[in-house]
Amino acid sequence: MEISLIYFRNYIMTLQTLPISLKTYLARIFPLETPLLASMSDITRQGNYGPQWLIATEATLCVVSEGNGNFHVQQSIPLNTVKKIEITSLIGSETIEIETTNGRIRMISYSNAQKPQFAAIVGHLSRMVSSTSRTREPDENQPPILDKRSKNKFYRYVEKARMLVRVLQFVRPYKKTVLVLFLCMIAGTCFGLIGPYISKLFIDVIFKADPSSGLYENARWLLWAVGLLLAAGTAQVVLSAVQQRLSGTLGYAMVHDVRAAMYEKLQFLSLSFYDKHQTGSLIARVNQDTAELQRLMVDFFPVTLESLFLLAGVGAFLFALSWQLTCITILPLIAVLALLKKVFPRLTVYFNRYFHRRSLMSALVNDALSGIRVVKAFGRETAEAARFSAHSALFRDSGIALTKKWSVYYPAFSFFMMLGAVLVWLAGGEFVLAKKMTLGSVVAFAGYLAMFYGPAVALGQMVGTVANALSAAERIFEIIDAVPDVVEAPDAVALPVMKGSLELRDVGFGYEKTRPVIRSLSMAIGPGQRVAFVGKSGAGKSTLAHLLCRLYDVDKGAVLIDGVDVRKIKRADLRRHIGVVLQETFLFNGTIYDNIAYAKSAASKDEVIGAAIAANAHEFIIEKPDAYDTQVGERGDRLSGGEKQRIALARALLHDPAILILDEATSSVDTHTENKIKSALDNLAHKKTVIGIAHRLSTLENYDKLFVIDNGEIVEAGTHKELMARKGHFYGLVMGQENTGAS
Amino acid sequence: MNILDPKTLSFERNPNGYLDMDVEGKTYCNVRCTQLFPLSDPQCYIAVFHKPVPHTEEIGIIMDLNGLSSSSYDLLKSEISIGYFVPEILSIQSIEKTKSAHSMETWTVETDKGGKTFQLSSPKENVTVSGKGAVFIIDTEKCGYKITDYQTLPIVSRAKMEKYLL
Question: What ipTM does this complex have?
Answer without folding.
Answer: 0.76
